Amino acid sequence: MSDDHAASAIGAYGSHLAELNPTPTLDRLAAEGMMFTNAVCTNSICTPSRATLMTGQYSHTNGVKTLSDDLPIAKHTLPRLMKQAGYQTAMIGKWHLKNEPAEFDYYCVLPGQGSYHRPTFRDMNSPGKWPDNLRHPRATYDTEHSSDVITNLSLDWLKQRNSDQPFFLMHHFKAPHDNFENAERYDFLYDDVTIPEPPSLRDSPNHGSIATAGTGTSIGKRNERRNMGDHMFVDKSLSDEDYLTVAYQRYLKKYLRTVRGLDDNIARLIEALRESGDLDNTIILYTSDQGFMLGEHDYIDKRWMYEPSLQVPFIVKYPGKTKPGSKSNALVNNTDFAPTLLDLAGVKIPASMQGHSVAPILATGETPSDWRQASYYRYWMHMAHHDNPGHYGIRTENFKLIFFYGLALDAQGAQKDSTTPGWELYDLRNDPAERHNVYDDPTYRDVASQLKIQLLQLKQENGDTDEKYPELMRVRELVWGN
Q1: Is 394 domain-assigned?
Q2: What confidence tens digit (pLDDT) does each residue in 113-132 have?
Q3: How many domains does the chain fold into?
Q4: Reported pTM
Q5: Which of 62, 115, 161, 351 could bond 57 through an S-S bridge, CB–CB 3.0 to 4.6 Å?
């Protein structure tokens, strides 16, 4: 698992960045297994996404709605069940959940966000108890990058593990989370290349709504408080257009250099499995905790329900089961990852998990007739950090409906001042880049009405009905029929 790896930054997904060959290893993995083209997250922010991976539950169910919430050890369901099933388990790299990963046989994890260079880890074999069991960097870490060090730690664990047991390793990169620090050997990668821009960077004629006007941090000068030009030390005296151009190029080059580092380290892991003779008996799953905005609509970061932030890469190589080079357009979300891992290991999926195993899809290449037709999303951290309003919505194969309610509610870290509520509707068949909000288009009135009904049904089925938020219910009553 990586952090903030947009599907568009993987060559196999065929975006405008594919010509740069950003991920040759992941592209080979997709060619040898199955790539899911409609995999999405349910809350596009780090800690909640990782809690969903541990529990197979939506944020409102597991209680981790924001970066500040805790996931009790009792809810670390996935590693506990894998260990009970006889697997030797390890969690190495970025953890980003506050409580100790105590359900694993072994862990060595970054404290919080961790550092890109000279990283320190919390190691269960180090002196002291969590969170003071720090493993200080060796002298050799001085010039090493976290992606290299995390991989070294996983390779060490694979060599030292009990070979009489099957293993379950969660290898989690910090990369490519901002501030996008790459290893030194990639400093000149893409140096002589002009990175292609997404068309919506400069031209989104009808994207957004009254609810999102002026919100979200930017590439260019649009958001004066926080923009990528500031992060990348772009000369503020440049014109708006030139500032945007320079900021985008610096942003994408740093990001893609960091991506190449994790891709090369995945190659090291795969080669180690080949050398040990385990590769053909190992299931490899690759994903990210969420996607990332790489300049689409002049946005940076994640949090949005817009496609670059919502979509996650999901690639599975299952030797002898998945057809090489196959693709699935099944609507998968990250509540499905824990049930899938358990199912692949022959473990009964607990009733507490709200997702579904994709194992039948891996085996047949076909989407079951009773598979979900819509995925529910909710972002709780209203206007925190990157100025994104609180919102929820529904994503189907063909459409996306988003309700920006613009309230903090009880989300830790959310800003208390409300923003204007409103609706956005995108026709993904004809407008996959989401450049035209058609909510007010009369020809989509029936579509919007049906999606609202479907959204309420999905909220009811998933147990996120909002009755405890009277202020939100009043906003719904005012704008629901608009």
Answers
A1: no
A2: 999 998 999 999 999 999 99
A3: 1
A4: 0.97
A5: 62
